[in-house]
Design goal:
By secondary structure, the protein is an alpha/beta fold. The protein is built from 11 helices and 12 strands. It has helices at about 10-15, 25-35, 40-45, 55-60, 125-140, 160-170, 185, 195-200, 220-230, 250-260, 285-300, and strands at about 90, 95-100, 145-150, 175-180, 205-210, 235-240, 265-270, 305-310, 320, 325-330, 335, 345. The strands form 2 sheets. It has a 9-stranded mixed sheet. Strands 10-11-12 form a 3-stranded antiparallel sheet, with no helix packed on it. The protein is globular, with a radius of gyration of 21 Å. The structure holds iron/sulfur cluster (SF4). Pfam families: Radical_SAM.
């Protein structure tokens, strides 16, 4: 088995022992529809003896992806509704997404942009499109933060990333540049001195949001790659997706959040899975998600608490959807629920 090059086809998956030969046809049909890529680091992480391996579940195509439900959408979080120019999504007043590239080193089977990413996706911005996107950012003084996402922006060469950062440098109202990436986990060797220099080339405060969903993804190599970024002055936060069969378990979720904090990555977002096409086998109910998030409160440090978030379909932005721990009782009184689930009146009765 060759785990030194990316796995990209149904044949590669069979050769790597990740798909049974009997499943080749179904997996080929999935691969025709949605991009497939598994990096060598992820291929090595998969336990081939575990039919329910949580790493395989995130990256190995499944025939269940051919099942489409009526509520699923091509553009589940409504990027298109807020895209004034190609490559820019301006949903909130003070920040924009800059989607410079729609390629990733791995393709997650639950991806919310699965209709846009991959070899048949929206590709990389042309020089003219990038000019227009930068001009849009420069012309809108309310833009305080630019978030490079995609796709995975860290697949761009350090030279290309450095150029983008140099072009953001003179835009004084942009104070923060954030990158959303899986690279420190899935291609940790890519995080080298050239990449780090490129990320810092804009002279802005630089944040990296690392996408990981299971504690096993935080390997020593991933932790070392993250440490190289953090030691260079880059702030790291996490983002994870709550996924059935991957991390819908209180112990797994607690271990994941602790692994982030041990790596000096502050847990930031825990996303409820989006209504992306062919992903119903990953979705759990909001009640199940709320119970899991509440279980974190009782068992792990405050540093390990992410915000449980739903991207409202149609492009209406994010909402925090954890169960409320406070309810008004009238007369200026509230019932407050503690981390054990016990209720208390506030202010306490004298
Ligand atoms: S890395 Fe992000 S954009 Fe790429 S496939 Fe995974 S979820 Fe989608």
């Amino acid at each position: 088995m060759n785990v030194h090059r990316p796995i990209k086809t149904a044949e590669d998956l069979v050769d790597a022992g990740l798909v049974e030969p009997s499943q080749h046809g179904a997996v080929s049909r999935v691969a025709e529809r949605y991009a497939v890529a598994i990096s060598p680091a992820i291929a090595r992480l998969i336990d081939r003896n575990d039919p329910n391996d949580p790493i395989a579940r995130q990256f190995v195509p499944d025939a269940a992806e051919l099942t489409l439900l009526p509520e699923e959408r091509e553009d589940p979080i409504g990027d298109k509704a807020h895209s004034p120019v190609t490559g820019i999504v301006h949903r909130y007043p003070d920040r924009v997404l800059l989607k410079a590239v729609h390629v990733c080193p791995v393709y997650c089977r639950f991806c919310f942009r699965r209709e846009m990413v991959g070899p048949q996706g929206l590709g990389t911005l042309t020089p003219t499109e990038l000019d227009a996107a930068i001009a849009y950012i420069a012309a809108h003084e309310e833009i305080w933060e630019v978030i490079l996402t995609g796709g995975d922006p860290l697949v761009l060469s350090p030279r290309r990333l450095g150029e983008i950062m140099e072009r953001l440098k003179p835009i004084a109202h942009v104070k923060i540049v954030r990158f959303h990436t899986r690279v420190p986990v899935v291609e940790p060797e890519r995080v080298n001195a050239d990449l780090i220099a490129a990320l810092k080339a804009g002279g802005k405060a630089t944040y990296v949001a690392l996408h990981a969903n299971h504690p096993r993804e935080l390997t020593q190599d991933a932790r070392d790659a993250s440490a190289r970024l953090i030691d260079a002055g880059i702030v790291m936060v996490s983002q994870s997706v709550l996924l059935k069969g991957v991390n819908d378990d209180a112990d797994v979720l607690a271990s994941l959040m602790r692994a982030f904090v041990e790596t000096r990555i502050k847990p930031y977002y825990l996303h409820h899975p989006d209504l992306a096409p062919g992903t119903s086998h990953f979705r759990l109910s909001i009640e199940e998600g709320q119970a899991l998030v509440a279980s974190l409160r009782g068992r792990v440090s405050g540093l390990c608490q992410p915000a449980y978030i739903l991207d409202i379909p149609g492009g209406h932005g994010k909402a925090v959807i954890s169960a409320a721990s406070i309810a008004a009782e009238g007369g200026g009184c509230y019932t407050v629920t503690d981390f054990r689930g016990e209720e208390h009146i506030y202010p306490p009765k004298i």
